[in-house]
Amino acid sequence: MSIAMVVHKLPPESLGGTELYTISLARHLTARGHQIAIFCPTDSDVRAIQAEQGIIIWREPRSRSVLPGPAGEFVRTLRDPAIEWGFRRFLVEVQPELVHVQHLQGVSIRLLRMARGVPRVLTLHDYWYFCPNSQLILPDGALCDGPRGGRSCIGCGLARASLSLPRTGLGGAIGAVASTAFMWRYRAVRRVLGEVERFVAPSAFLRQCYVAEGITPERIALLPHGLDVERLAPRRSAPEPPGRPHIGYLGAIAWQKGLHILIAAFNRLPEGTYLTVYGDMTVFPEYAAQVRALADHPGIRFAGALPPERVGDALRTLDCLVVPSLWHETFSLVAQEALGVGVPVVASRVGALPERVIDGVTGRLVPPGDVDALADALADVVLHPERLAAYRANICPDPTMAEHAADLEALYASLAR
Description:
By secondary structure, the chain is an alpha/beta fold. It is 39% helix and 16% strand. The two termini are 12 Å apart.
């Protein structure tokens, strides 16, 4: 089958979970005999079409006429003439039998409509299709309970644009216009989603969020991401940990990921316990400086970002991984990967994380943002290593990416019929 994929970013420009998943899925579908072509925008001024491991990757320049920053991304959600023109040419060249959209943030929601005539599958990686900031988090850090048709999005939109408007006069008028724009975005995206033949959600939690926003349950297939065992395979002799017990954090250095909660909790553990933090400290430098300043424990070290092929080696050095998220995680690739290599996980009881970690069986779950509870959970596994051993023995890894590709192949075939 000739399958076209659409995604908002790809490696090496971006190494997020959606990007890594897209490339891995494309490789496994290629191995199953399908012809895969991926369409992706680029910030370059030049279109690039190349073949990588049998996969066609088409990188199309974005429109230069669109506004920069958050305002530009908002506009591109609804229309990007250059991307749309390139996608039309891409469809003519590739002649796909099915289009599988991974993400359209900053791309153009119209691409879904342009692919009419062949079955369309859309994987829901986050909340972006009804939440412009994609994470359901308010500017003050509280969890958002929903967009209310876009009416609740004005505060986040102004915060992202670093604007603070008075409620009366010109500020009130601008706020009213912005609120109308967010409601218009919500309705425009919903209209296009209404045409999609099938959605895929990696977690029951995320699936239910979209059901609550009006997508009928029978249109959303629940299909957790596959475990990429090839990428996690040992590459070299892993470096020895600084000591035991060795606890780890691997992910974005961003406040919604809760690293400051982990640092505060770890500061309470006895000396002779070690924490390694893997993540890029340059993306949000102010927050990175805050967590560095918060780290009082002598066993804490910041090891920087990891290339994807080193993740498996790094995880294998850990006695447990901590995922202290403050937002509603939609899947948690890193928790899946840790469990996939036999490492127990201590995580926040929020979003889809309880679907990944079974409390008291494969790890521990604690209330999000609760330093005391996290410190107690970590002290428990540090002082009772036999519990970690029991968690480790209970781990049953998720299906592999090869098995996941086979499940998707069956979904594609049902739509083609």
